[in-house]
Design goal:
Number of helices: 18
Strand order of the largest sheet: 2-1-5-3-4
Largest sheet: 5 strands, mixed
Oligomer: single chain
CATH topology of the largest domain: Rossmann fold
Number of strands: 17
Number of domains: 3
């Protein structure tokens, strides 16, 4: 059992577990020590120097983020000398930072801007030494502006250690230190567009490519029928952009806002999630029960994971489910089934996806297989952040909007479709259907708690009709390699496979913690967002994808049968090895 330590901070008694940092200890007694480099997801780097504090009877200043509180400490966190040091440090950072706040993607949501305001910095007191580094928008998903980098190291830590991608690193030293995409541009780097770098960056050094103007043009074009869909995780995060409590489910308000923006048809990616489960669930049954295909089967809903696999684990392509991601399925069905039912010309249709994800921007143009309808399945992707900006630009009072419903055909969904947004949700939804497909019996309990939670790798054995199904759920790409290495090692040794079914999500927490979600995500926020999805699932009458009557209808009227000819044509894809720098 860990011992506690007692100390004083600004004269206030505090007792915390040994090893707790000064920064975290101060927070427990409602003292906020400013910092620019520390993020709750990451280990401290002490890079910025803003969190300095003093101990009694010592002129030495300590960095609160990386210094543990020790017994008997008497700390001062905000005296005039400390405030002056912090202000000078911020002024030095600003001297190397472009003065472009009004045109920056992080305007009014920038940690450096907030610090400058808090410290009353109104004039530039140091010479401008902003480096002339060109903008890198080569990836088409993320934009890297190294001039705005404050050398906090968050993005590098996330990319290398959390995600194990190694697309970002620092070059040069001292005042010449700069962020770079492995010495090349983003498009040539190992980047998989997960966007966790942008989600953790405190400034506008890395942001998503802004596609709002393209979408405005689509909406305003009288010749175009604009279709929009929202992903499961968007509904439980977008409210944060309008000051609503974390985890507020804003499904109905989001539908209403999209109609006011001018979209003609509102669908829901949750329907696509149900459709994915039908295809993916039957695919797993075919592999596991009938031995047709390789095991373990690995889910393919996450495009950053798909890109990662194609670059680093291309030998495992045969393990990937061939099912498209849910929003791609909705796009394909919009331009075929929906267009046919409504007498619309698919040439004059545009499908927009609102996603928690930056990698979806890459996915929609990945290759011809995302155009199986004869047209590109999805024409544009907006992140949750981009949609929030559009709603504000349109003058819509989001918080006070009355809830509205979704349009039919591709809008109705089950609770299984909803939980796709949380890590483990795809696996749980698939098991609900796979169990009943195999046993022909009603599942006695639909919840699979073993798939839930934020543990990086979750493993379990599920009994289905007397058959042991070994599953794994991994989220955060840094955890994925361990799972695949176990699979490959067992195969090489001729041993029994450790898993039959594996779910992977690139972002920690799954889509609720996606790279396109509102800034400031931590595990506390991930938990609350995920719980909101589970709460909706628990409140619904329909909780299994195969019980969704709209799913039954689309197979009866258009697709035929799961894994049939039409289903393969419109709902499935294939993969290819992609060149990549070796990490």
């Amino acid at each position: 059992m860990s011992e506690n330590v007692k100390a004083r901070i600004n004269g206030i008694e505090v007792e915390v577990e040994a090893g707790t940092s000064i920064l975290d200890a101060a927070e427990q007694v409602q003292i906020k020590i400013p910092t620019l480099c520390k993020h709750k997801d990451l280990d401290p780097t002490a890079a910025c120097g803003i969190c300095v504090v003093k101990t009694a009877n010592s002129p030495k200043m300590l960095r609160a983020c990386c210094t543990p509180l020790t017994e008997g400490m008497d700390l001062q966190t905000h005296d005039p000398e400390i405030v002056d040091v912090r202000r000078t440090t911020i002024e030095m950072i600003m001297s190397k930072h472009p003065d472009e706040c009004l045109t920056c993607g992080r305007n009014q949501d920038c940690e450096l801007q907030t610090l400058a305001a808090d410290f009353g910095i109104r004039n530039a007191v140091l010479d401008d030494i902003t480096p002339p580094i060109p903008l890198d928008d080569s990836k088409g998903t993320l934009v890297l502006d190294a001039r705005k980098c404050v050398s906090c190291g968050r993005c590098v830590d996330v990319c290398q250690n959390m995600q194990d991608v190694w697309a970002l690193c620092f070059e040069e030293r001292g005042i010449d230190t700069r962020i770079t995409a492995a010495g090349v541009n983003l498009a040539e780097s190992p980047c998989v567009s997960c966007g966790q770098c942008s989600a953790h960056c405190p400034t506008g050094a890395i942001v998503e490519k802004d596609d709002t103007e393209e979408v405005w043009n689509i909406i305003r074009d009288p010749e175009v029928h604009a279709v929009v869909q929202i992903a499961p995780a968007v509904r439980v995060a977008i409210g944060e952009a309008f000051g609503m409590p974390v985890g507020t489910n804003c499904t109905g308000k989001t539908y209403a806002a999209l109609r006011r923006l001018g979209f003609e048809t509102i669908f829901d990616t949750n329907f696509g999630a149900d459709l994915t489960i039908i295809e993916e669930g039957h695919e797993f049954v075919r592999r596991f029960v009938h031995g047709e295909g390789s095991l373990p089967m690995i889910t393919s809903c996450c495009p950053a994971w798909v890109d990662f696999m194609e670059k680093y684990y291309s030998d495992n392509i045969d393990l990937f489910s061939s099912a498209k991601s849910p929003h791609e399925m909705v796009g394909s069905m919009s331009k075929t089934y929906f267009a046919e039912k409504k007498g619309l010309d698919p040439k004059k249709m545009k499908v927009i996806s609102i996603m928690p994800c930056t990698a979806k921007k890459w996915e929609i143009g990945r290759s011809v297989e995302m155009s199986s309808s004869g047209f590109q399945d999805v024409d544009a992707v907006l992140t949750t952040r981009e949609l929030a900006r559009m709603i504000k630009q349109a003058g819509i009072d989001f918080v006070n909007l009355a809830d509205e419903g979704v349009d039919n055909l591709l809008g109705e969904y089950s609770g299984a479709g909803t939980i796709f947004g949380a890590t483990g949700g795809v696996m749980e939804a698939a098991l609900r259907t796979a169990y009943e497909v195999v046993t022909k019996e009603t599942l006695p309990k639909v919840e699979f708690e073993v798939t839930r939670g934020l543990e990086g790798i979750k493993e379990a054995s599920i009994d289905i009709a007397g058959n042991e199904v070994r599953i794994a759920v991994a989220h955060g790409l840094g955890n994925v390699g361990q799972v695949l290495d176990r699979i490959n090692e067992a195969a090489e040794k001729g041993e029994e496979l450790p898993y039959h079914f594996v779910e992977v999500m690139a972002c920690p927490g799954g889509c609720v913690g996606g790279g396109g979600q509102p800034y400031g995500v931590t595990d506390d926020l991930r938990i609350k967002r995920a719980q909101a999805l589970y709460d909706e699932d628990g409140s619904m009458d329909l909780r299994k994808s195969h019980e969704n009557p709209s799913i039954t209808k689309i197979y009866d009227e258009f697709l035929g049968e799961p894994l049939g000819h039409k289903s393969h044509l419109y709902l499935h894809t294939d993969y290819q090895a992609r060149a990549c720098y070796v990490k």
